[in-house]
Design goal:
This protein is an alpha/beta fold and 300 residues long. The chain has twelve helices and eleven strands. The protein has helices at 3-15, 22-31, 42-55, 68-75, 91-100, 128-138, 156-164, 177-189, 207-211, 228-241, 255-261, 288-291, and strands spanning 81-83, 106-108, 116-118, 120-122, 146-150, 169-174, 196-200, 215-219, 248-252, 271-274, 295-299. A seven-stranded mixed beta sheet has the order 7-6-5-8-9-11-10, covered by helices on one side. It has a two-stranded parallel sheet with strand order 1-4. Helix 8 links the parallel strand 6 (169-174) and strand 7.
């Protein structure tokens, strides 16, 4: 049954409800969490299970001791920023941690006072809902295609691409040996290694790989982990190596935002931005604003 047929059936069903009861039913449909259970499938359960395993092996901010420079950058922004990994923690889990005192949404403006302001949260991973949106709504059928995730970190894009797409190869590039080891442990535990590979490598050493890549994914990959000069070097390399016509580039934030921050021009004639339809319901916990941060480009 397609969407149009389902709408027709639903209207027919609602027309049979006693008029005095109809507002109650519509309110239940609008506000109840029960219908969201229909969106929970085995793929989502697998991703949630991987996230649970990762939470058990990482500190609550999912940052490694070797990432002290990135932590310093986040803490010294105009508004202090903390890393809350969206793949590991849903909004409901964050709320629960805040209630327990294990996490806070606010910081003190003046030590010892009651003056507080909200912290900014940032994630270097897509949430489970965002992964579903990316592979089922943003990207086309990936059968026979190669997907590369730059800075694969915990491996969320790789796991999401495995369960939500038919991509033949999913390759993560990761500089941290600890994160590479963590991802490989998950791949073997959940039997995903037949289509997924993680390389302990700098993207700037992977010219041949990028030349054959069909989809390149970059989620908050450089800003907090590289100095501006290194970021410029990496972007120049990507613009030169990732040139296969028709290939797709996914970025968070937009290319414009990333390059403007570096006062770096977008190479003319490299990519064109494609529209992304965010009018998709993926559950009550999905933030439409987060979906709008996902940008899609095509190499021309």
């Amino acid at each position: 049954m397609n969407v149009d047929e389902a709408r027709l059936k639903l209207r027919e069903l609602l027309s049979q409800v006693n008029p005095p009861e109809l507002p109650k039913l519509l309110d239940w449909m609008r506000n109840s969490d029960e219908l969201d259970q229909l969106l929970v499938d085995n793929n989502k359960v697998i991703l949630q299970s991987i996230a649970e395993d990762l939470r058990a092996r990482l500190p609550i901010d999912a940052m490694l001791p070797s990432e002290s420079a990135a932590q310093h950058k986040m803490q010294h922004r105009e508004r202090p920023t903390v890393h809350v990994d969206s793949f590991l923690y849903s909004e409901e889990q964050v709320d629960a941690l805040c209630e327990e005192g294990a996490m806070s949404r606010n910081y003190c403006l003046s030590c010892g006072s009651f003056r507080t302001a909200p912290l900014d949260f940032i994630s270097h991973s897509f949430s489970v809902s965002e992964l579903q949106f990316l592979f089922q709504n943003v990207l086309p059928d990936l059968s026979g295609r190669t997907v590369v995730d730059v800075g694969s970190r915990l491996g969320a894009v790789l796991y999401g691409g495995y369960v939500y797409s038919s991509a033949s190869r999913l390759i993560g590039l990761e500089l941290s040996e600890d994160f590479v080891r963590l991802q490989n442990d998950m791949l073997h535990k959940y039997g995903l290694a037949d289509r997924v590979q993680v390389l302990h490598a700098d993207v700037c050493t992977q010219e041949v790989l990028l030349q054959g890549t069909d989809v390149l994914i970059m989620n908050n990959v450089f800003e907090y982990f590289m100095e501006p000069s290194e970021q410029i070097r990496a972007w120049k390399f990507i613009m030169q190596a990732f040139r296969k016509r028709g290939s797709l580039l996914v970025t968070v934030p937009s290319l414009q935002d990333s390059l403007d921050a570096l006062q770096m021009p977008l190479q003319p004639g490299w990519v064109e931005e494609l529209p992304v339809d965010c009018s998709v319901y993926l559950g009550r916990g999905t933030d439409p604003e987060e979906l709008r941060q996902i940008h899609l480009y095509r190499v021309i």
